[in-house]
Write a structure and sequence with these properties.
- The structure is a single chain.
- This protein is α/β, with parallel strands linked by helices.
- It has a single domain, classed as Rossmann fold (3-Layer(aba) Sandwich), CATH 3.40.50.720.
- Strands 3-2-1-4-5-6-7 form a seven-stranded parallel β-sheet, with helices on both faces.
- The chain is globular and about 50 Å long.
- The protein starts with 6 loop residues before the first strand and ends in a 7-residue tail after the last strand.
Length: 248
C-alpha cells in the first residue's frame, strides 16, 4: 500500500492496540501524535518509531481531563498543521458484579470510556470542520454488542461509544463536512486490559479466556489501518472482529 501521510492522533498509546497502531501507521508514512499518561512508555515508543525512519511526537495526556485533551489537539496542529485522524483508543475494563458495589470503578470507566471519547471529539472537531476533512475512529468492543455477567458497566460504556459515534456520523453527514466516523469493536486482544480487574471471582476466568484465544494487537492495528486507508468518499462505519476461536 502507498503511504497515506496523514496526521494521526492516538490516545491510549502507551501499549497494546495504541502502540501497535502507532508503529504500523508510522511505518506507512503517517505522522503520529501519541498520547497516554505514562511518559516513559511514550518516549520509548516514539524513539522506536523514529529509529525506524518514522515521524512521531508524544504528549502526556489524561483523557478524563478536557483541558489536557484540548492541549493534545493543539499540539498536533502546532506540530503538523492539521489533524486527519483522531483515534479514541484509551479505555479501561474493570469487570465486577453489581453486588460488589465497586462504584469508584464504575465512575472510572464512565470517565475514560465515555467522557474520554466525547472530549476527543470536542477537541478535534473544530479543526476538522475548518478543513472539511477528517476521520474519527472510536474503539468500542464486542462488549458493546453482547453483555455478560460482571460486564454491565463496561458494556454500557461501549454501547455508549457506538451511540455517540452514530450521532456524530449523522451530524457530519448533515453538514457535509466530509468527516468520517468509524467504530472498531474488537474481541479478545492480548493487551493490558485485564490487568486492573479487582473482582477476584471474575478475574481468573477472564484471564483464562484471554490466554486461550486472544490475538495480537497488530491484528487490531491492521483493521484500523484498513479503515483509514479506505478512499475518502467511503466510510467504514463499524467493524467487529474477534479471534477465530472466540465464541461470544
Amino acid at each position: 500500500m502507498s503511504d497515506s501521510n496523514k496526521v494521526v492522533v492516538i490516545t491510549g498509546g502507551s501499549s497494546g492496540i495504541g502502540e501497535a497502531t502507532a508503529k504500523l501507521l508510522a511505518k506507512r508514512g503517517n505522522r503520529i501524535v501519541l498520547a497516554a499518561r505514562r511518559e516513559e512508555r511514550l518516549k520509548a515508543i516514539v524513539k522506536d518509531i523514529q529509529d525506524n525512519g518514522g515521524t512521531a511526537v508524544y504528549q502526556v495526556t489524561d483523557v478524563t481531563d478536557y483541558t489536557e485533551v484540548e492541549n493534545l489537539a493543539k499540539r498536533a496542529v502546532d506540530e503538523y498543521g492539521r489533524i486527519d485522524v483522531w483515534l479514541n483508543n484509551a479505555g479501561i475494563m474493570l469487570h465486577s458484579t453489581y453486588d460488589k458495589k465497586k462504584v469508584d470503578e464504575w465512575s472510572r470507566m464512565v470517565d475514560v470510556n465515555i467522557k474520554g471519547v466525547l472530549y476527543g471529539i470536542a477537541a478535534a472537531l473544530p479543526y476538522m470542520r475548518e478543513r472539511k476533512s477528517g476521520h474519527f475512529i472510536n474503539l468500542s468492543s464486542v462488549a458493546g454488542h453482547v453483555v455478560h455477567v460482571g460486564g454491565g458497566v463496561y458494556s454500557g460504556t461501549k454501547y455508549a461509544v457506538r451511540a455517540i459515534s452514530e450521532a456524530l456520523r449523522q451530524e457530519e453527514a448533515s453538514v457535509k463536512s466530509n468527516i468520517r466516523v468509524t467504530v472498531i469493536s474488537p474481541g479478545a486482544v492480548a493487551t493490558e486490559l485485564t490487568v486492573p480487574i479487582t473482582d477476584a471471582d471474575l478475574k481468573a476466568g477472564i484471564e483464562k479466556l484471554y490466554e486461550e484465544v486472544a490475538i495480537r494487537p497488530e491484528r487490531a492495528a491492521d483493521t484500523i489501518a484498513f479503515a483509514i486507508e479506505t478512499p475518502a468518499d467511503t466510510a467504514m462505519n463499524e467493524i467487529i472482529f474477534r479471534p477465530t476461536r472466540q465464541k461470544t
